[in-house]
């Protein structure tokens, strides 16, 4: 019996490879990562006052906190929300400009808006805020966790968290949706639909929809039951605009979504992920996690979140988290 448990333990312990290393300031929460075109500098943006900005000469560090992207906050006004408290940035580059989608929201409610800011350099304070992008309000979704992609020349934003989960909307321009209406692309029918933080990434002939399933949280006083905490799922689609399925062929509108990364070793509750196309390494999955030792010692709220990363191997047609 003991031997069986021991073997099971070994199997679980080795289910996922170790995360990539990080030196310097390794805090993050709902990161967005991008390399600057001009000099290859890595930028890591996080939820936080004015959008926290960290930079590094390499993926591994040393990372430095260089300040707030929007030190004066957003021009969006939402009842009961501090306009400096900006969530879930998503940054991309097109036509010589960096675009940052961001969120103002009242936690656990549909009082939310997605806005956009632009910069030529991504330096703190260099961002021009353009405010709301104009996704129509709807009781079906929550307007948080934006993620941009271009598919055959048409730009889209993925967004959503709980309620009816993940939606996609075509953009009229990078600054607004115009009269386009969102359509649902992923949904978990169970419990209260714990799906959020979507990120769509094209590789080979497919579009891969990464999302965080399970319970996010500061993991301080009360912890979810084991297995219910944050983890990273993936679905794929040939068109990128619908018909997402998981590795077993289950529709991602019907609770599908293959888990590719979950709690292991010191990495508890990985999520808030995205994929960086590293100029040297290719596709890299980045995420936040909560160190198990911090959780076990009672935690220290969102200050405890850390940045993790692993290269992704797409050779089977499905992304696999690689050992460093
Ligand atoms: C923030 O607001 C102050 C006061 O209005 C202004 O002087 C400063 O230029 C603003 N900073 C940014 C980055 O917009
Ligand atoms: C759907 O939700 C259930 C209950 O929370 C969970 O066990 C399952 O892993 C979820 N699946 C996906 C793909 O999110």
From TrEMBL:
Record protein name field: Arabinan endo-1,5-alpha-L-arabinosidase
Pathways involved: Glycan metabolism; L-arabinan degradation
Pfam families: Glyco_hydro_43
UniProt entry keywords in alphabetical sequence: Carbohydrate metabolism, Glycoprotein, Glycosidase, Hydrolase, Polysaccharide degradation, Secreted, Signal, Xylan degradation
A GO CC term attached to the entry: extracellular region
Reaction catalyzed: Endohydrolysis of (1->5)-alpha-arabinofuranosidic linkages in (1->5)-arabinans
Site (Important for catalytic activity, responsible for pKa modulation of the active site Glu and correct orientation of both the proton donor and substrate): 145
CDD domains in UniProt: GH43_AnAbnA-like (cd18831)
MF terms (GO), sorted A to Z: arabinan endo-1,5-alpha-L-arabinosidase activity
Superkingdom, taxonomy of origin: Eukaryota
